[in-house]
Amino acid sequence: MKIKSELSKIIEQALKSANIQADEIVISDATKPEFGDYQFNGIMRLAKELKRNPREIASEVVEHIDTTGMVSKVEVAGPGFINIWLNNEWLAEVTTEILEDKRVGVGFVEEPKRVVVDYSGPNMAKQMHVGHLRSTIIGDTLATLLEFLGDEVIRQNHIGDWGTQFGMLIAYLEEQNTDGNTQELKDLEQFYKDAKVRFDQSEAFANKAREYVVKIQSGDEHCLELWQSFINASLGHCEEVYEKLGVNLTRDDVRAESFYNDQLPQIIERLKEKNISTTSNGAECVFLEGDENPIIVQKSDGGFLYATTDLAALYFRANVLQAKRICYVVDARQAQHFKQVFTIAKMAGLVGEDVSLEHIGFGTMMDKGGKPFKTRDGGVIKLVDLLDEAVVRAKDAIKDRDVHSDEELDAVAKAIGIGAVKYADLSISRESNYIFNWDKMLSFEGNTSLYMQYAYARIQSILRKHNAEVSGEIIIGDEIEHRLAVMLLKFEDTLIKASIEATPHTITSYLYDLVTLFMKFYELNPILKEDIKEDIKMSRLQLSILTGAVIKKGLEILGIEVVEKI
RNA sequence: GCACUCAUAGCUCAGCUGGAUAGAGCAACGGUUUGCGGUACCGUAGGUCAGGGGUUCGAAUCCCUUUGAGUGUACCA
Question: Is A448 within a domain?
Fold first, then answer.
């Protein structure tokens, strides 16, 4: 339910009836329960423009508000706030209706857009490490969210498969194969290290590697074949990680750097034509106002750089894929790069003015000491290892609960462990760095996935215990049920906000508030006790079912599974 | 040097398109139980929102400035 926009309409109508002009009406959540459910704070500003007393205007507006439907009560408070209470009968009716709705009351965006979400972007020469985690899960959440709200999402996995190190890697791969050593590259990290050792030791090998770089780029069939087999194997490793993470990225979403290779000269031509770039010290450069250094788009030796590839990708996404919104889920440290590339793309007309280009930046993952997250000996932590450890730790956290068979325990541990890692990441506002802490993320307390999953499991337990059909309407019987119903209906506004700002943590905060409220409701209002009247019992069961459905849908958007028992 | 980001309770974090007495969790202390799953719930305590100035009826939020931390800065991605 788009509550805020409904309330805006009501206020707009009231203002009109009171003969007051206002451009934009912003409804906010009430800051406290005693101030109602929502509030409108715009009167003070209007009063200033009209040079009138704000309380006086507010009283006039309030008189014109219809309190027979959605709204039950409005009040003028403080200097001129308008506090709004939602009607219990209305809440009961709407929540009962959405019990039947698979989308739990969430509609679609009014104007669906085609959106490109660029995320994950692993480097094919290296194992995925923790640095890729944030891009992968924030991007995946954003894609899922936009899709759910009705946008047409095109996922793009811009993998790094081009560059000088590939000459070395395929030369080494060829050597391994001809030695009859057909074992596939199990450990990319090790393979890279071994190739590097060979490269440093043997001059002949090093020369071959350099030769291969040129050969791949000029389209030599043998080299391309080797290169392709290397990329395939490497991509296979990434897919294992995606599988573990439960991330929806497939080979169809891969559009590698190499894909844009042919188009790079045209990009340079275009920049030259439009007099955007100039030659400086032999390199083709774009000098932007406010930047002391240029953006180099072509090296003095004729080679291209990542800015060039990104420009080609922007052109492709805006013109071939026809996206109206392009989101780059990439480390915040690349903010300057994207700002520059976006500016150049618009200047050169590679991307239309109506296309929204967004760098969805995120902070770095830190250890407890606030230093970038590394292994004890200073190495990079492999993502696979991190995820496996999460599952082991999750199993340890729940093994004494004695509600699972051995097979169940493994599946539940997986849902909890992976969920914990994802939730911990998604629940921090994405731009800030965050401190990685196993104990905190696997706690039943606080804003963690486990707390949400536990609440969900408790709801399922109630339903199992009831073990009969649940029917009938939701009745709002007290303050806590009123607040719970309002919270349940806030789900759509929450998702809309999260989709516009690309902030998954908006969703986690909401879920946490919802679950906290549900726990209070559950403590206060017995459901299955014998002396509870049938219609009240049914209503409370329905509220529980709806809460469970919203938790499940919310976690699903975050890519986290629920379990029936914990 | 220049540019950008950040600074909120002991710790980890929300709140930032200006609105009422700045909120959570953890840790500390106290309470609730013949419990529909107590790894739950309730309460107490804890704040010069880094310092200073400005704009405003109103500032954690906007502007300026100082300090501190981090990041980026011509041929890697």
Answer: no
Close Cβ partners of A262 (under 8 Å, ≥ 6 residues apart): none
Q: Mean pLDDT, to the nearest integer, of A77-87?
A: 94
A64 lies in some domain = yes
Instruction: Identify, with chain letter, the residue nearest to nucleotide B70 (CA–C1').
Output: A433
Nucleotides of B under 7 A from a protein CB: 1-6, 12-15, 17, 19-20, 24-27, 36-37, 39-42, 57-58, 71-77
Among A66, A86, A106, the domain boundary falls at A86
The Å distance, CA of A147 to C1' of B47, is 42
Q: A171-229 pLDDT, tens per residue?
A: 998 888 766 555 566 777 788 888 888 998 999 999 999 888 888 888 899 999 989 98
Nearest to A35 by CA among A72, A63, A74, A90: A74
- Whole-angstrom Cα Rg for chain A: 28
Spatial CB neighbours of A242, under 8 Å, sequence gap ≥ 6: A120, A136, A248, A249
CA of A522 to C1' of B33 (A): 15
Report the number of distinct structural domains present in chain A.
2
Per the structure, the residues numbered 331 to 350 in protein chain A that have their CB within 7 angstroms of any atom of strand B are 332-337
CA A137 to chain centre: 6
Please identify, among A249, A280, A309, the residue that sits at the C-terminal boundary of a domain.
A249
Domain of residue A75, CATH code: 3.30.1360.70
* Amino acid A433 CA to nucleotide B6 C1' distance, rounded Å: 9
Q: Give domain status of residue A143, yes or no.
A: no
C-beta atoms surrounding A556 within 10 Å: 13
**Calpha distance A112→A65 (Å, rounded):** 32
For the CA of A508 and the C1' of B19, the distance in angstroms is 26
Instruction: Give yes or no for CB of A354 within 7 Å of strand B.
Output: no
- Distance (Å, whole) CA A458 – CA A52: 54
Q: Is the CB of A403 under 7 A from strand B?
A: yes
| Residue numbers of the domain that contains A40 | 3-86
Nucleotide nearest to A48 (CA to C1'): B57
Residues A405-422 have pLDDT tens digits of: 888 899 999 999 999 999
Dihedrals φ, ψ of A542, to 5°? -65, -40
Q: Is residue A221 part of a domain?
A: yes
